[in-house]
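Structure first, sequence second, as always.
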């Protein structure tokens, strides 16, 4: 019996050592894995931010080119902001979605039990209803922006668009429990001021060429569009975090395609109901750069706005709607600077100061995210990110 007890004790000791070694290995794996995932998250955020800045700047410049060279249709200017979603059709054709399963391994008496649980899906009726609401809101929002851009000078249009940041912060506070720190508040103030400076640009004198009635219409429409855009971003974040509860590129594509499809149908109804469709052929013939340039201008406006949407929805998914809007507002002063090269406008101190303040505001927001990243190992590297993203990074 003594030898048997010694053998049993030695076996238990070996099993304990193996357990410790496995535990150490798992602990080591989990200690390095979150760091790698944080880097991956930041890379994706960088890519999405670039897409937002690039898409917004190019699309805005092309939209300005459309109006300056003879474009007059507000509904067509609205349509091209959303009608580019068919470029994602190849993704649906060649990508076969696979069901995601969550696997749990439980070891009892040297037996491994695997449970495959399919993630719950929201009802089709609920998802369809949300896409309808988002699509109709976006359609109305884009139309209001088109009216504002038509009647207001670019500088005035930019300052009013900066107000979308305040609207987004307001809606995010109630819908998504957005938290505000001194660095985030500082960022919002600096980004807003950077856009406010653009009102002092010389082209603000162009408002004298527009009647007071049209100027007032453009002002009201742009304010309404800014408020609507802030609401749409907050609702999109709430929808993806609380309803879809998924985080993948396919979710980004689905949100863009389905809401754009609804918005495009609504805009087409408006285009034909307003009889503006009957003037499009004449508009194309009178376009200063020619028919081919007319078509290519509209085509690239549609494509670049889709690039912008990929970045916008991606940032909402990775971070928050407020961060996505911060990147968008950061890009507002970029447009006047790019206009120096493409439209031969003058580069003055106001544009330079606007760029400096915008960059400062963005750095302030990024620094707050840096503090959040290292304040706790259990927190998302991006402040106020979705709960699922926190779980993914720390898993």
């Amino acid at each position: 019996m003594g030898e048997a007890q010694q053998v049993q004790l030695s076996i238990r000791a070996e099993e304990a050592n193996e357990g410790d070694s496995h535990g150490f290995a798992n602990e080591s794996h989990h200690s390095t894995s979150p760091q790698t995932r944080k880097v991956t998250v930041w890379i994706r955020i960088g890519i999405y931010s670039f897409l937002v800045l690039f898409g917004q700047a190019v699309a805005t410049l092309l939209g300005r080119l459309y109006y300056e060279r003879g474009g007059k249709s507000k509904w067509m200017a609205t349509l091209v902001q959303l009608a580019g979603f068919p470029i994602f059709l190849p993704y649906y054709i060649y990508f076969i979605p696979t069901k995601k399963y969550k696997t749990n391994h439980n070891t009892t008496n040297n037996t491994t039990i695997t449970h495959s649980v399919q993630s719950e899906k929201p009802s089709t009726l609920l998802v369809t209803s949300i896409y309808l609401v988002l699509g109709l809101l976006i359609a109305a929002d884009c139309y209001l922006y088109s009216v504002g851009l038509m009647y207001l000078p670019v500088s005035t249009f930019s300052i009013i668009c900066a107000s979308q940041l305040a609207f987004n912060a307001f809606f995010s506070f109630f819908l998504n429990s957005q938290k505000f720190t001194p660095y985030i508040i500082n960022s919002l103030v600096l980004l807003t001021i950077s856009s406010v400076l653009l009102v002092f640009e010389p082209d603000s004198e162009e408002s004298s060429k527009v009647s007071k009635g049209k100027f007032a219409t453009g002002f009201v429409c742009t304010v309404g569009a800014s408020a609507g855009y802030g609401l749409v971003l907050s609702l999109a974040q709430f929808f993806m975090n609380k309803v879809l509860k998924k985080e993948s590129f396919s979710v980004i594509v689905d949100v863009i395609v389905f809401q754009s499809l609804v918005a495009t149908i609504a805009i087409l109804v408006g285009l034909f109901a307003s009889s503006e469709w009957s003037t499009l052929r004449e508009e194309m013939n009178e376009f200063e750069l020619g028919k081919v340039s007319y078509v290519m201008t509209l085509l690239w406006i549609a494509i670049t706005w889709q690039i912008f949407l990929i970045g916008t929805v991606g940032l909402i998914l990775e971070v928050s709607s407020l961060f996505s809007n911060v990147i968008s507002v950061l890009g507002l002063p970029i447009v006047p600077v790019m206009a120096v090269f493409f439209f031969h406008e003058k580069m003055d101190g106001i544009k330079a100061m606007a760029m400096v303040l915008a960059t400062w505001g963005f750095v302030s927001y990024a620094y707050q995210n840096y503090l959040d990243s290292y304040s706790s190992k259990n927190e998302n590297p991006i402040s106020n990110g979705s709960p699922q993203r926190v779980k993914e990074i720390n898993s």
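Margin note: Residues 52-94+125-201+210-375 form one domain.
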